[in-house]
Amino acid sequence: MRTSQSRKASRQIKNRSVSLNVTTSGLEIQIEDLKSLIKHPPSTSKIIEFSPALAEHILTNFSRDNRPTKPAKIKRYAQDIVDGRWGLTGDTIKFGSNGVLRDGQNRLAACVRAGRSIRSHVVFGIDPDLFTRMDIGKNRTPADVFSIAGIPYASHVAGAVRWLVILTGPNPGDRGAQFSNEELLQAYREKFDADKLEHSIQCALAVRKSTRHPVAPLAALHYIFAEKNREKADGFYEEWVMDRTKRARAPTRYLQRRLVEVARQSNQRLHENVRNALIIKAWNAYVAGRALTKAEMQHAPGDKMPKISG
Asked: What is d(CA 204, CA 201) in angstroms, rounded to the nearest whole number?
């Protein structure tokens, strides 16, 4: 027959597995309790106290493929914790059904930095496919979402996909078009080839290194050019980088000269549509094997975007 003392001990053990009470549990027990909650997610949130050691363990072992941390935010949160301005709110730390931390890495990193425990509501069992809906339009940028999805060059790819959707859409001059994180990720997965796009990013990075033009539109344009003729698209960008042609009106040489001129005339603020249009015009001349003229290398922000040859 169980004594009242043994029943009390049994209840303490049972309660410990739910609350992760760091004042009575060692780190190993806390970790086992956390794993149990991940494996058998409760239907409601749980209030958990995270010690710096537990927070560090989670960040090391449960936070793969997460978005980049934000050092400034971590520093600010840590100072709030140290100053006693950190309390229990409705904000939650979230774990996916696959055991991966989906939201809360900056708060946990602040806990580690501050060297103080924090309490938070925690939700378990979130479907990993639904992570793009978390904090959409508030905290997560497209680059964050692409990074969480494990996509290489996440920031560049997210920007390139946005430009690809615009440039291949009904109005390629609509540079202000807005898309949700989910729409961009879906477009990346369903409309564009990941390996080809990564190659286009590499080509755009090479151009940026020598010209300082932004990667995203350059990568999008290279991808479109390569869909028409991969060899010529690579040659066009390589010639642009190397500046190896001697003809003054050669497409790549005249393109770069014209881009510099337009930027100088507009106080170094080169309109995106103007840049894209001039690149397209230079490409069209390149694939046609002809020189450019000054008259055709004109474009105003409101002009219709030229069609892409190839």
From this structure: 5
Question: CB within 8 A of 189, min separation 6: which ones?
Answer: none
CA dist 219 to 47, 82, 157, 266, 304, Å? 46, 45, 8, 24, 21
Beta bridge partners of residue 119, listed in sequence order: 49
Domains of the chain: which residue ranges? Answer: 4-126, 143-288
How does pLDDT run across 96-132, given as a tens digit for each residue? 999 999 889 999 999 999 999 999 999 999 888 776 5
Give rounded-to-5 percent helix, strand, coil for the chain: 55, 10, 35
How far is 217 from 273, CA to CA, in rounded Å?
10
Q: How would you classify the pairing of strands 92-96 and 101-103?
A: antiparallel
* Helices (H), ranges, 90-229: 105-114, 142-148, 154-167, 181-191, 194-211, 215-228
Contact 254, 288 (CB under 8 A): no
Answering whether pTM is above 0.70, one says: no
